[in-house]
Q: What sequence folds into this?
């Protein structure tokens, strides 16, 4: 009996993503034009971030005053800034910070938010009421405002910035996870798992979580774009990265003071932000088409 | 005492992704700076003659740097509104002279109140509310004879009792740390009302700076009636003085509106206009964005701006629709202060290495577009008594090799990553500022070249003040917060390097009682040559301790539309532009 139950449990778990289904999903993703473009752009961004020093011969930090405010040319395709630093090099190196700023808050928000959502949705009762109330309070603030308040409290810096953006995203994940759990917990495979005496933790993590992960992945991909934007916005207003680390939002912020003299100082970092946000949004769209159970019907 | 912001300004939230791809109207290259400083005359802070008619009649106070000299001076016309765009936000909204916190509220304070005397950088103290004064032979009491026709905006007559009232509320213990209290608490003894229009102020030590201090906006005389009626807190937001403008409204963080005081006729005779002001209204707007400020001027939304984007100055100078005003205010140079209480700047060798490692020429060129003047002097203007740039230059002429050598000798060895270490401790400096000026970033890069790691933290003004007070910084920028005095006397040194100022303006945290006494003694010397020599000794002491790295003598730049006339750059406030005589051409 017990062995049979285990078998059912394993079957439920592994039947979710059998090898052929992964190929199937990949195939669907490849059929989504948004997904392809977004995926390629994200891949390119990651490569740029990793290989920044190979792609540019210039140091992104060392000033070269003699070359200040050079317009885009063969030597400096994106021009130079007020200290003569190569904008292309700074944009390339800036990709590292921006990708980190996109990914880490989402991992942070995702893990905490999903855990809260799972608990609230599965156990119901006073625990749910308490978590819901806390989430509702957080949701009442616009995300960026919440992040602003948190970073103002913690002080500027990359770490604090990521924590702030992360916290401001927790409610979305908790909400989504909870509503998915509410549906899943009534399904027969969950009932079956419970009937054969699986522990609560096992039911939650092994049976329910894999089945609600699809919408969460979509939300996370779209969230990365938002987090990059939020991080750049906070850096733009001086609450983010400390100089001299190249970061797109900060570059934009400095560049706007010189926009009449050197438009390239703000245009290229601005484009970099636009492209990366677009990339993650497209990828997110593609993933939603692929993973959303409703569109699969 | 104000904080100078260079190049850029504090930012405000904007939807940055709405990227303005402005029509790339590249401006022409910046030109070398001209020095618009009035001719030197570091004469004494002298006592005016006692005769009541001492008001100078031929005080030719001509604007020095107005860009376009109109051939025939048009006659001033009343009316119109002068809208002045401030670049900074004050730490508080207070318009009470005793608690105001410098620019921009201080700018309104100049126009709302009168002081006992007016201070001319060349001629020294001149009559304003006081028609004449006498100093006792020991220099410890000043007897002022007041005008009898002055009324506050609420109708209260300005008399000896009002002067006493104003001074006494300045020295209240709870105001410790405020600019007015900072000066007066240390020396104030009492004020005697001799009769309705004669008042005697007694101080502890003879001070050559006393009359200058009394001329500052922080010693504006307030209406006792209004203060008693409203209480201090409310008065600060509903100020009542006797100046050429009355208070109308304040919207915190946005604007202050003043309206003309039609009864005003007691302005110093030395001013272009000693009668009622010309514009009906005077509005100070807060526009922190440097490009927004310029755009506001160009669209006519405002007609006067401060801290013009340096890259646009040359273009505006050529444009007949605008005027440019430049001034290098006296005071302390734009400098980096080194905290001697926090490691590793507690080490003399590290401080000296910093002195050698900073390339002032490069900073002036890259950040100030060449408009300011690189300097080795603590004093911000060659016109100041005791000015001597050779002291700093002979000690620390820019030399990276020297900096490296000093650090090597002190045991800070260079690692493979280009950073210096002593044991496993990296040579790391905390640089805490409240500006987004680009000076810090360049300093960071320059110090990195000799192996120092600089961590740059930019805070809001209140946050930075707290951090400085706690001494969390190794470096900070901005003359310890002091600049923009027009007093050509170097007594300003006392504000930055005495024990009583530790935690406020003394960001190097240097405290030596013997040095305090030396400063007090220097300020009290009546003979100019001797006082100058004493000031040089003080500067030598400060620089050999490497408490401060002078960078530039800062030139502040304003712009107005060409319709604004009668602007006078001679101003006891230094970085405050005197707009008493300004009028708006219809």
A:
């Amino acid at each position: 009996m017990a062995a049979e139950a285990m078998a059912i449990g394993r079957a439920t778990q592994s039947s979710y993503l059998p090898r052929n289904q992964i190929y199937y999903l990949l195939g669907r993703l490849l059929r989504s034009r948004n997904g392809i473009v977004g995926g390629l752009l994200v891949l390119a961004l990651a490569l740029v971030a990793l290989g920044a020093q190979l792609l540019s011969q210039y140091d992104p930090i060392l000033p070269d005053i003699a070359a200040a405010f050079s317009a885009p040319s063969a030597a400096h395709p994106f021009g130079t800034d007020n200290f003569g630093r190569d904008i292309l090099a700074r944009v390339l190196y800036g990709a590292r910070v921006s990708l980190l700023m996109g990914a880490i808050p989402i991992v942070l928000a995702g893990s905490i938010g999903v855990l809260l959502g799972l608990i609230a949705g599965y156990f119901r009762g006073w625990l749910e009421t308490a978590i819901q109330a806390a989430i509702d309070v957080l949701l009442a603030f616009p995300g960026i405002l919440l992040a602003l308040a948190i970073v103002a409290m913690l002080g500027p810096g990359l770490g604090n910035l990521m924590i702030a953006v992360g916290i401001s995203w927790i409610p979305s994940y908790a909400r989504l996870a909870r509503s998915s759990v509410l549906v899943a917990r009534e399904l027969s495979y969950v009932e079956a798992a419970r009937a054969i005496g699986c522990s609560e933790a096992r039911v939650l993590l092994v049976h329910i979580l894999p089945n609600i992960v699809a919408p969460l992945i979509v939300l996370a991909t779209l969230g990365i774009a938002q987090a990059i934007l939020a991080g750049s916005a906070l850096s733009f207003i001086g609450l983010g990265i400390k100089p001299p680390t190249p970061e797109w939002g900060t570059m934009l912020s400095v560049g706007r003071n010189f926009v009449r003299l050197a438009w390239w100082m703000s245009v290229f970092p601005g484009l970099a932000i636009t492209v990366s946000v677009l990339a993650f949004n497209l990828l997110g769209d593609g993933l939603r088409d692929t993973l959303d159970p409703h569109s699969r019907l | 005492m104000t904080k100078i912001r260079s190049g850029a300004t504090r930012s405000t939230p904007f939807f940055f992704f709405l990227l303005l791809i402005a029509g790339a109207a590249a401006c022409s290259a910046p030109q070398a700076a001209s020095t618009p400083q009035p001719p030197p005359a570091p004469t004494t802070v002298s006592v005016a003659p006692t005769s009541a008619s001492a008001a100078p009649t031929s005080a030719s106070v001509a604007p020095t740097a107005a860009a376009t000299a109109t051939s025939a001076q048009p006659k001033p016309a009343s009316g119109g509104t002068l809208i002045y765009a401030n670049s900074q936000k004050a730490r508080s909204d207070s318009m009470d002279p005793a608690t105001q916190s410098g620019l921009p509220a201080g700018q309104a304070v100049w126009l709302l109140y009168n002081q006992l005397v007016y201070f001319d950088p060349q001629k020294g103290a001149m009559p304003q509310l006081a028609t004449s004064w006498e100093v006792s032979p020991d220099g410890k009491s000043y007897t002022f004879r007041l005008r009898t026709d002055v009324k506050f905006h609420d109708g209260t007559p300005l008399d000896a009792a009002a002067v006493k009232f104003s001074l006494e509320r300045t020295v209240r213990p709870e105001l410790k740390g405020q600019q007015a209290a900072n000066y007066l608490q240390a020396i104030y003894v009492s004020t005697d009302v001799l009769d309705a229009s004669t008042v005697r102020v007694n101080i502890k030590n003879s001070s050559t700076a006393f009359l200058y201090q009394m001329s500052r906006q922080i010693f504006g005389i307030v209406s006792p009636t209004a203060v008693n009626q409203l209480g201090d807190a409310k008065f600060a937001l509903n100020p009542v003085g006797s100046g050429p403008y009355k208070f109308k409204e304040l919207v915190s963080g946005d604007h202050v509106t003043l309206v003309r005081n039609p009864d005003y006729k007691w302005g110093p005779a030395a001013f272009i206009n000693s009668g009622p002001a010309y514009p009906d209204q005077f509005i100070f707007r807060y526009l922190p964005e440097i490009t927004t400020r310029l755009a506001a001027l160009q669209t006519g939304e405002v007609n006067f701006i401060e801290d013009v984007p340096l890259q646009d100055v040359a273009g505006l100078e050529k444009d007949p629709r605008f005027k440019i005003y430049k001034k290098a205010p006296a005071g302390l140079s734009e400098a980096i202060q080194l905290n001697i209480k926090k490691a590793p700047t507690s080490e003399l060798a590290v401080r000296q290495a910093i002195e050698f490692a900073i390339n002032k020429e490069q900073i002036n060129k890259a950040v100030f577009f060449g408009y300011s003047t690189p300097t080795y002097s603590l004093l911000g203007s060659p016109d100041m008594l005791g000015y001597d740039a050779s002291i700093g230059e002979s000690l620390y002429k820019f030399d990276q090799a020297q900096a490296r050598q000093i650090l090597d000798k002190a045991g800070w060895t260079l690692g493979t990553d280009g950073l210096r270490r002593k044991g496993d401790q990296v040579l790391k400096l905390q640089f805490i500022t409240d500006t987004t000026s680009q000076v810090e970033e360049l300093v960071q890069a320059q110090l990195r070249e000799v192996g120092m790691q600089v961590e740059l933290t930019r805070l809001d003004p209140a946050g930075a003040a707290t951090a400085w007070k706690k001494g969390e910084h190794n470096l900070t920028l901005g003359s310890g917060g002091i600049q923009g005095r027009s007093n050509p006397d170097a007594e300003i040194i006392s504000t930055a390097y005495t024990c009583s100022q530790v935690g406020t303006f003394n960001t190097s945290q240097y405290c030596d009682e013997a040095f305090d006494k030396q400063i007090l003694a220097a300020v009290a010397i009546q003979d100019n040559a001797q006082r100058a020599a004493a000031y040089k000794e003080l500067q030598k002491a400060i620089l050999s301790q490497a408490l401060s790295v002078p960078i530039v003598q800062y030139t502040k730049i304003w712009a107005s539309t060409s319709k604004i006339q009668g602007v006078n750059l001679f101003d006891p406030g230094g970085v405050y532009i005197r707009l008493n005589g300004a009028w708006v051409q219809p």
